[in-house]
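During the no-cost extension, the postdoctoral fellow (Dr. R.K.) reprocessed legacy sequence entries with the updated structure-token encoder. One reprocessed record is reproduced below for audit purposes.
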Amino acid sequence: MKKIMMAAVLTATVALGTLTACSEKKTQGPDDGSAGFVNITDVVPDAILEVRYFGTYNFVGARIAGYEQPTALLTREAAEALRAVSDDVKAKGYRLKIYDAYRPQMGVDHFVRWGKDLDDTLMKQYFYPKEMKDSLFIKEYIATRSGHSRGSTVDLTLFDMCTEKELDMGGTFDWFGKESHPDCGGDPETGIYRPNDTLTADQFAHRMLLREAMLRHGFKPYDCEWWHFTLKDEPYPDTYFEFPVREL
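Re-encoded structure tokens follow.
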């Protein structure tokens, strides 16, 4: 009888441990606001993810609050439009590489806290060597709200399938400076290159290749960052979501 009781206790303990482990698994659903969102790679399986804010190679130099897994989320509408972009550029020998997409408000708040700490310049040489940190708010490199938190904005570049490298855009993601502006080196409206000492003709053409594909499929550009695009008809234009970045 004692052996039977001990076996029953052991079985119950194992079952309870399994239940506890399952109950601790983080999930997202309609109650947290993520119901209208999808994993980008579920809709655009060819997309390459390099989620900079999950790691430490970003302008802060630390993982950003709210980035719990190295994945990327978008509203379903934005992801479907991005799939059309992917099909477009893939036919030309490229894949999409995603740096950031949906960004929870807690991540934006992290940027703001970092921006106010003027002594923290760990990553200055990599992302803002020409800028004083106290100018980052004034020049709107950092703001208290971001379109990313509405879920239909994406930061991305092109990956060349022949060379197996990112296409040379003449500048890095999240560089704080005029070199990141789409009109650096030419007219983005006409695609005409202007000889200059910042971008080569090829680099400018690469930026235009990405821009034109995004615009062709319903996205609009941002005039300070060549990598930043927002769905024109975004489904949540007035909502800034808070749920964390993790697999849905």
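Confidence is low (pLDDT under 50) at residues 1-25. The beta strands are 37-39, 48-49, 73-75, 94-100, 153-160, 165-166, 186-187, 192-193, 219-222, 225-231. The remaining legacy entries will be reprocessed before the final report is submitted.
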